[in-house]
Each structure stands twice: as structure tokens, then as C-alpha cells.
# Entry
Amino acid sequence: MAVKIGPYVLSSNVVLAPMAGVTDRPFRLLCRRFGAGLAASEMLTADARLWNTKKSRLRMDHTGEPSPRVVQIAGFDPQMMADAALRNVDAGAEIIDINMGCPAKKVCNRLAGSALMQDETLVARILHAVVRAVSAPVTLKTRTGWNRDNKNGMRIAVIAEDCGIQALSVHGRTRADMYLGIAEHDTVTAIKARIKIPVFANGDIDTPQHACEILQSTGCDGVMIGRAAQGRPWIFDEVNFFLSTGEFRGVLAPEKVRDIMRAHLEDLYALYGDETGVRVARKHLSWYFRQHPGQETLRNRLVVIETPAEQLSMLLEHFDTGVQYLSVHS
# Structure
């Protein structure tokens, strides 16, 4: 199914969820190469006074990224959000995504992220201000509500469409649920039936079959994959292939997985420098290795390795032992 957001027709209706500390430029590029139709940046604060940190500067670096480039912003002040959107568009962002889905306490305590869903009037003011400020399409990510007694995702979706939001993604949990329990997609089904803009279902979509089932049961225009892509960026290729053929991709050969991991690590070192690159690579390696035999031993080794050379050597050594990579659908 072709999905259009503003002037952009997505190459796939299977997209990467923005995740703080995960969806940096190397990971976004990797997921796009495997067929993700969109890959939004990590959440960027709307407070431009905080953009001078190295972390923020790296989050705003989109060198080499394919179009459309998506920047996700978070904040609570309508004018500040509008200014942040405009500055990012001026810097090369082609789609602005507004975060009203993050459940993290440090975000919600500042009345940003999913905390905004408690104040529908403020939601409307923010969305209106951002849409009016930029010529680029603006999208929104939400949850189903603040808690299970206050599932106002439908009202937020209607507000979003009325304000000119051009696509909506809904995580099938409330803010109070955090990431506990099983995501429910009945709410997104109802939302999709009510509004006309593209809607993406998000939450616990971790296999090609599940992606297909969610698309069919919700009527959504696309699916958004988050945690299932950690350590498995090729899931986008698997899902796209299944949606187009009804068949599974063959299991990746160990040497192919090794080469993907090695290239990913080298991109991390190039972006962050050796010291920070090694630290960032640890979590990605832990995710890559989580389905491997002896994963606890591997993780214990990871935390004491301090140089790129040691990390790459460990990686090559591990695959030289003839490890067989486990398929997500095996």
C-alpha cells in the first residue's frame, strides 16, 4: 500500500519508530537500507537553548540520509515547538514529527511527551502552531490515552486531523502502561475508522505475520516497528517481503549478519569517536547477540571492552566459532 505524507510517497508502509538512545543516524541509515519507509530521528527537545550539547548536535546531523528526512521534536510550549520545527526545516528536515507518545518520567514530568494527552486544549494549540509555522508536513505520535480510564486517543486524533496533521502513529498502550503488558490495537482500529489521514499502528509488532495481521485487522495504512528492530534491522526487509509475497525471507547467513554488525559498529565509531562509539556499540551488540547461545558470557565481555579494535576482534572471533543466527520466525 502506497502511503503519502505531504508530497512524499513512502517506499514502504513499514516504518521505524523513533527511540531515544537508539535511532541515531547510523541506525536510521541501516533500517532505511533494509526497507524502512521512514526513520525518524531521536526525540529532540524543542528548547533550542539546549541544542549546543554534543548529543543534540549529533541528533540534528542528517548527513547522507535519504529523503524524506524526519525530525521528531518534544516540548510543551506552542511557540517554542513552532520555532524548533522551523529551525529544523531550515536545517534540512523534510517532515516534522511531534512526540506525544513518550512515557518516560523525565519527559512527562516536564509536561511533554504523552503527558500532553492530559490537556487537549494545549495539544490543539501546539499542533496548530507547528503546522502553521512550517511548509513541511507535520506528523504526530501518540498513545491510546493517559491511563486506562482516560483513553482519549480518539479525541486527540480528531484534533490532530483538524489542525492539519498529515499522518498519525498510535502506540497501543496508555502512558500509565509504559511498556508493560500487551499492546492493544482496538483503539487504533477505531481511530483509523474515524479519520482520513494515514494512520500507523505501533506496539509489539515483532514478526512479519504480526505486521500483516495488524494491517488487516486495524485497516491502518502502515505499521511502525520499534523494539523488534533492535539487533534486527533487517526485520523491515522480512516484513516487506512477507507483505508482498506471503512468504518468509530465508535466514541470513552468519557471515552476512557479521558484515552488517561490523559496518554498523564502524559507522558508530565514525559518528561518535572511539570512546563514545564503543559505549554506544555495547547496547547494539547486546541486542544483536540476544538470540545467540552463550549471550550472558558475551554481554559480560562487552562491558569491559574499551576500544574499537577489541570490539571488532570479539565480533570476528565470535562468528569464527560458527555460530548460527536464529530467525525471528524459527
